[in-house]
Amino acid sequence: xxxxxxxxxxxxxxxxxxxxxxxxxxxxxxxxxxxxxxxxxxxxxxxxxxxxxxxxxxxxxxxxxxxxxxxxxxxxxxxxxxxxxxxxxxxxxxxxxxxxxxxxxxxxxxxxxxxxxxxxxxxxxxxxxxxxxxxxxxxxxxxxxxxxxxxxxxxxxxxxxxxxxxxxxxxxxxxxxxxxxxxxxxxxxxxxxxxxxxxxxxxxxxxxxxxxxxxxxxxxxxxxxxxxxxxxxxxxxxxxxxxxxxxxxxxxxxxxxxxxxxxxxxxxxxxxxxxxxxxxxxxxxxxxxxxxxxxxxxxxxxxxxxxxxxxxxxxxxxxxxxxxxxxxxxxxxxxxxxxxxxxxxxxxxxxxxxxxxxxxxxxxxxxx
Length: 368
What we know:
Blueprint: H1 2-13, E1 20-32, E2 41-43, E3 46-48, H2 50-53, E4 57-72, E5 75-88, E6 96-108, E7 113-125, E8 142-153, E9 159-172, E10 178-197, E11 200-219, E12 224-242, E13 247-260, E14 268-280, E15 284-301, E16 309-324, E17 329-342, E18 355-367
């Protein structure tokens, strides 16, 4: 917390520097079911319902975005720092602080080939457990670093393609019983074809990715270590359709497969569909992204009254808007919703259960 405050203060004193682009935002809103708890649970023989399980509260967001960039012949160097703080008025233990930092260097070999490298670091501080990852039940707080190297190429006049390599590490805050961390690596290829139609730019394309995670799980009580390896394959197709110069929509279909190389227990197949709806004018920006997904586990069974293969149905919604009041001030809003419907009806545990979480915030952004 003290480091986040220090960063806010230092960046505030640097705002007069013309080499920096800095914005500060403040949003007030309300979040329901902060810890993504199920709506019913039996604990120590007592039946608990939403009023006992849900932690909900009004909140205040403070967000600072700062970017320093320098261009010279064929090169771009950029440094960005983004601290965020969310304070819950009636759930003080749920407060969240996040710091994102990134260093990026890009070099243009030619008009059709660019090489980008970036090193990013993120640290998140928040109490509680992440119930969206019950296979490991990791804490919400963590620190993560990632190195990315990308080649952006054009194989033809209408083609845009990207080859990308990632490598990094994510270490979760230690719980009372264990410490979880993993190294990750990935290869990603995206290609799209663009075409002009009635003065509007259409594009459609394909994304293919392979990634892996190598977990190290330290049991603090028993002083033992265990390993876990998961591999992922992702493919998606998308089509960006402009209605006019202000409105466009981009539907997408995606398939993800997780392969559990350790004991073949936590593998799954997930199918999802989504679309991005965007409106942009000189003063108003609107982004809406709904997503619907179905995840079916290969081996993992439910633990309720009926035994069957575990599956989830997800509904996600993300909306961002901004309205430019003048050269310095913008009115902003953000809404987020996630709802997971699980076929596990075991009310004696929170693991692999259905839950619902949402929040909405409204605020102001100042451009220095």
